[in-house]
Amino acid sequence: MLEGQVPDHRYMRLFSEVVRHAWKQKQSMVEAILRGSKAEIEALRGRKNKLVDLLVDSRIDQQTYNEQIRRLTVEIEGAEEISRAVSLEHLDVEAVLAFAEKVVKQHQRLWMESSVEQKQKLQKVFFRDGLTVTNTGFGTASSNALFGMLGHVPTGEATLASPTGFEPVLPP
């Protein structure tokens, strides 16, 4: 099955360009969220400092101060959590694309060198709806969209594996 899925390099270049473009858009959004989050944190800290000044100047009572400090602390923690979560989004997209290209170009070798657990994961990537077994061999109704664009899955008898050994052969 994997032998029939030969990538077309034109599609790989297009795929990489699309991923880079989408990644740049996402990074722009992430940077905007980070800027907004940092500005909000600074504004909340400024309000917290003003609240301390009001208490020191005896312009508010201790109970009001405590209530407002708790509220501001919760708001600051929420804004900081958003900032941390968004900061984790940084990824080396070029390394990911290089790995994806390696997987696509060397998918047969990768399969042969993988453990059973890795093969199960790869099978889900290569054949999202799984493989089917029939009396005449095995096949798949659909492969991963990327592989669908990159190659053609042959349907001839010579490329099908014998079902013997997978499961007992059942009558039609």
Structure in words:
The protein is mainly alpha-helical and 172 residues long. It has 2 domains: 9-87; 93-159, no CATH class. 65% of the residues lie in helices and 3% in strands. The protein is built from 6 helices and 2 strands, in the order αααααββα. It has helices at residues 9-56, 62-87, 93-105, 107-113, 116-126, 145-150, and strands spanning 132-134, 137-139. It has a two-stranded antiparallel ribbon. Helix 1 runs antiparallel to helix 2 (62-87) and helix 1 packs antiparallel against helix 3. The chain is elongated, with a radius of gyration of 28 Å. Mean pLDDT is 78; it is low at 150-167.
Question: Any chance you could write out the topology, listing elements then pairs?
Answer:
Elements: H1 9-56, H2 62-87, H3 93-105, H4 107-113, H5 116-126, E1 132-134, E2 137-139, H6 145-150
Antiparallel strand pairs: 1-2
Bulk shape: elongated
Number of helices: 6
Strand order of the largest sheet: 1-2
Query: Major beta sheet, specifics?
Result: 2 strands, antiparallel
Quick synopsis:
With about 170 residues, the protein is mainly alpha-helical. It folds into two domains: about 80 residues; about 70 residues, no CATH class.
Task: Using brief descriptors, characterize the structure shown.
172 residues, single chain, 2 strands, mainly alpha
